[in-house]
Amino acid sequence: MAIQWFPGHMYLTQKAISERIKEIDVVIELLDARLPGSSANPKLAELTASRPTLKVLNKQDLADPLVTQLWLAHYNALPSTRAIELDASETAPARKLIDACHALAPLRGSMVKPMRVLICGIPNVGKSTLINTLTGKRATKTGDEAGITKIEQRIVLADGFYLWDTPGMLWPRIIVAQSGYNLAASGAIGRNAFSEEEVALELLNLLIKKYPAALTDRYKVNITPESTDETVLEDIGRKRGAVLPKGRINLQKAAEIVIYEFRQSALGRITLETPDEFAGWLAAGQLLDAERQVKKDAIEMARLIKFKKIARPEKLRGA
Ligand code: G4P
């Protein structure tokens, strides 16, 4: 199953960003430090390509600190890009953000030439929480369901420093299958758009390889070379009493436990992807997508020929 989730209001956000970007000096992109590559919106990269970008790895308190350093180094090596890590417990993140924006656009930030910053991110990445901290009030509603922030707002962060907030936005088609699973596990995608069991299996598949000790500590399951995502999910279900009549394991319940506890950081600090892994997934996803497009084009061509909307290629060549 490929996970897809693109409610209509996200098209409006896309349109609003493409209008607003004309008068913006720096784009702040909030990423989830547990899945930086997967939480980066490729559509946003397209819309904001002409502007310097500050990547904020948010929820760093939940992520593996060593992998966060890899991501920071990766982003800081890109042109016109800076990266910082952040978490909701920081009481005064404004100075960190303002300094990083000044480094990206040193000529802006005066009363005559104010710094105009656009802040974007996928749903549930922590944008409302950050803005509440920046403004010192509960200006926007936070919650664990994707897509609660809906209204664009302008915030004056300091003299000569304006911040435009945008609603959380995903992109119409997620071509990297693993990103779909990681986004669903993190809570960025509404729960009706995916199967918990499938997402939990994919999550366990990564955890078995990357953080087996976290699984053993949390669920007292034995991870051996023979362990698979299915056997571990069953073990967790058994250990947590998710058992149906006749001793069958309630896999749905077990999956919900795994996803919920990952989100709550009950398994410890975990990052689901490194820059190199994500680059590999992206390349494979793009290849598959290109093949899919070739097939689609061939079907469309056959349809047009069948209904005589266009001539056969040999006729076009005058054969
Ligand atoms: P959004 O506007 O981008 O959609 O996200 P929002 O601020 O609503 O945050 C989504 C959830 O992520 C909230 O948790 C919020 O507390 C949590 N969160 C935001 N930033 C951080 C962070 O840096 N670290 C950690 N650990 N959590 C963060 P919730 O469970 O929905 O609500 P609650 O915990 O505030 O009750």
Describe the model.
The protein is an alpha/beta fold. It has two domains: 156 residues, P-loop containing nucleotide triphosphate hydrolases (Rossmann fold), CATH 3.40.50; 69 residues, Conserved Hypothetical Protein Ylqf, Chain: A, domain 2 (Orthogonal Bundle), CATH 1.10.1580. The protein has twelve helices and six strands. The chain has a six-stranded mixed sheet, with helices on both faces. Helix 2 links the parallel strand 1 and strand 2. The chain is flat and about 75 Å long. The two termini are 44 Å apart. About 4% of the residues have low confidence. Guanosine-5',3'-tetraphosphate binds next to helix 5.
Provide keyphrases for this structure.
single chain; 319 residues; alpha/beta; Conserved Hypothetical Protein Ylqf, Chain: A, domain 2; 6-stranded mixed sheet; 6 strands; binds guanosine-5',3'-tetraphosphate
Short description:
It is built from twelve helices and six strands. With 319 residues, it is α/β, with parallel strands linked by helices. Helix 2 (42-47) links the parallel strand 1 (26-32) and strand 2 (53-58).
How far apart are the first and last residues' alpha carbons, in Å?
Answer: 44 Å
In the residues, how many domains can be counted? 2
CATH superfamily of the largest domain: P-loop containing nucleotide triphosphate hydrolases
Report the CATH architecture of the largest domain: 3-Layer(aba) Sandwich
Helix content estimate = 40-55%
Q: Kindly provide the radius of gyration, computed on alpha-carbon positions and rounded to a whole number of angstroms.
A: 23 Å
Let me know the number of strands.
6
- Give the uncertain stretches in residue-range form: 138-151
The level-1 CATH class of the largest domain:
Alpha Beta
Spatial arrangement of strands, main beta sheet: 3-2-1-4-6-5
Strand % is 5-15%
Gross morphology: flat
Mean pLDDT: 88
Task: Enumerate the distinct ligands.
Answer: guanosine-5',3'-tetraphosphate
Give the helices and strands as they follow along the chain. HEHEHEHEHEEHHHHHHH
* Structural class by secondary-structure content: alpha/beta
